[in-house]
Design brief:
single chain; 5-stranded mixed beta sheet; 8-stranded mixed beta sheet; alpha/beta; 564 residues; 21% strand
Amino acid sequence: MDTQGRKHVDPADQWVFDPETGSYQLRLEPEESPARAVPTQGTRRRPEQPPKPRSGENRDGSGGGRRAAQGRAAVPPSRRRPKPKQSRKKKALIWTAASVGFVLVTVTVGGYALYEHFNNNINTVDTGTIGTDSATTDGPVNILVIGTDSRVGLGKKYGDVGSVGHADTTILFHVSKDRSNATAISIPRDIITDIPDCPTKQADGTTKIIPGTDNVRFNTSLGQDGRDPGCTMRTVKALTGITPDHFMMANFDAVKDLSTAVGGVEVCLAKNIDDPDSHLKLSKGRHIVKGEQALAFVRTRHSVGLGGDLSRIELQQQFLSSMIRTMKSSGTLTSPGKLWDLANVATKALTVDTGIGSVKKLSDLAKDLSKVNTKNITFATVPVIDNPAEKVHATVVLDRTRAPQLFAMVNKDISLTEVKKKAAASKSPAASKLTGTMADPAYVRVEVFNGSGILGAAQDTVEWLQNTKGDPRSTNGGNASADIANTTLEYAPNQADQARRLADWMGLPESALKEGTKKAAELANMKLTLGKDFTAPGTPVTTPTKAPEGIQKVEANDKSVCAK
């Protein structure tokens, strides 16, 4: 209520300092108790910024009156406040995790005036049957964050004037069921994949099926032929086997506005950079970037690493990790001005699916996901190799050995970080068959049978064993007598060391090992029968409990990362 008893209040005045948490919170209803202190104009805003007008009030202050301290505990107009001990669990729930360059930002908001203001900022897309209608769930959450390179409305500044935008930067953000950890997987825009048929909602309410395309760049899953973000969600599902629940999309302006709203983002360079393409010019060392400079940082690729999109992804992951740390810092959590700016910018920047297409739903999602500790957020890149179909490598394809391992971990909700609870749960209760000595690879004798239903699986496995594992004695036994559900390895007691070696290579669970009772002849083969749980040579039959060796990844709380 203002001094004249009206309910029309300045939205910025609804940020209330909570002495129990040491942070500002946005009041859901007008405050009834006179005991809680409210920040004065002097503590709410920087002097150079004029206060935002209330509904029905002019900018010069006429027509509405100013909030007075009457009926409330007086607060001295000083900027300094004692800092009560903060409780992370009770802090204002602002949670960020994201892409691009482009940032998945959700801000907890409330109150009718703000609800209407922020709600009108949000653009939505109906993605049809892909995704969910609920903003929250008791299970894991998969959010597809899309940074589009659309230049619509941006003029000639960034080239490609009028481009409707493709999936230039895409991150699949997986949050674990217990909210203890999160994995953000960057999907290279130039990866060659198949784009499935895509139903898209038209302006008149009808649905149009856009035909799929095989062997094309991933980034054409958006914008090309009228494809919408739902098409990108379907492409991600086909590529990874992981179904996105929601999407969030933003363009170049999001990076500039969000980095400015938080007061800048710290980045680090291991060398001087002067990139004429992105217009980034920074010296070696640490810098605070925002606005155009922040956008130039996340667009830079020719001056770092190998000079391609994969190197740019590493820059973006560094930027986003730093932005997450900034968003969750006390300097942001306790600044009503920053919270207002952040909420306003974030909701304007986002296009989302209808399942989270309101401030209330975004707020619920933010509260649900705010429990994730920054140290347990890991950014990784989909493992890829150069496209063997090209003489000059301009595109990449999935690494068929390591990529399925990474996807399997996410699908099974296994963290890429050291989370004690997860690590303890993943340990096998008994591993007696898998412990002990392992035979030298050159002495592993196995005959491989195909019971998987996958054409050529036995021969592919034999070639993989011979060419990558140094096992010259493996042979193809052909098709099994029938397809089986689970892969099995039959061996004699005197072949246990060979069985352990093969189980290690294949990622076999203990249940797959079938030890006989009779001793085998010296040159006898073990019998490996591939089951329907087999997907490809080198892909563990059982879900791996640690990240594949050699994949690019970085933890969000790692401040030592510098672009090279």
